[in-house]
Amino acid sequence: MDIAQQKRRENIAEYILYLWQLEDLLRALQFSPEAIYSQLVAPRQIPEEGKNNFLIWYMEIGNLLRQEGKESQGHLDHTLHLIGDLHNLHLQLMELPIGEHYRQTFARVAPELPRLRLILGKEKAEMSDTELQFRALYAAMLYRIKGEGEKSPVSDTLALISPAIGELAALYGKVERGEIDLFKSE
Q1: Neighbouring C-beta atoms of residue 28, cutoff 10 Å
Q2: What is the pLDDT of residues 122-176, one digit of tens each?
């Protein structure tokens, strides 16, 4: 909850990846309140009232996964909508003068996207390039957690994806905070 709130304020991409990881963790704990409490809440060095708030928050995420029919796989609509917002920004940056640097960064990863679609089994036309990059980042993160980072089929593209998503996330934050106007030249 505290980590998620901080990540949401500071970096939308890290927030999305954090929530995806949390979804998988809740599934691994089989949405059991006892397991969630013992594994995720009890180790925290906070007052009991705070622990109850954390348990409620985790259970709410679990309930959302159930409501959306994503108990065994898939990601919350909330994160997919955020990726949709990021993709809309991506499309704007591909056209507007303010996106010049972003276009150069994205141009390095663009040739790799068809291969990533094949590797990740995401040939569906409805998946945006932005979501594809997030899925590649998440896949690489899971390989690293398993201690198999070098075996990741997407590891060779991380050096291209990370800067593009990082820049997109930074620009998203600036737009959201009103620090930049997309329709003004810098």
Answers
A1: 10
A2: 666 579 999 999 999 998 888 888 887 666 677 778 889 999 999 999 999 999 9
Q: How far apart are CA 20 and CA 35, in angstroms?
A: 19
Question: Torsion angle of alpha carbons 21, 23, 27, 32, nearest 10°?
Answer: 110
List of residues 6+ apart from 41 with CB closer than 8 A: 51, 54, 55, 58
Residue 64 confidence class, pLDDT cut points 50, 70, 90:
very high
Across residues 85-94, what is the average pLDDT? Answer: 98
49/47 Cα distance (integer angstroms)? 5
What Rg, from alpha-carbon coordinates, does the chain have? 18
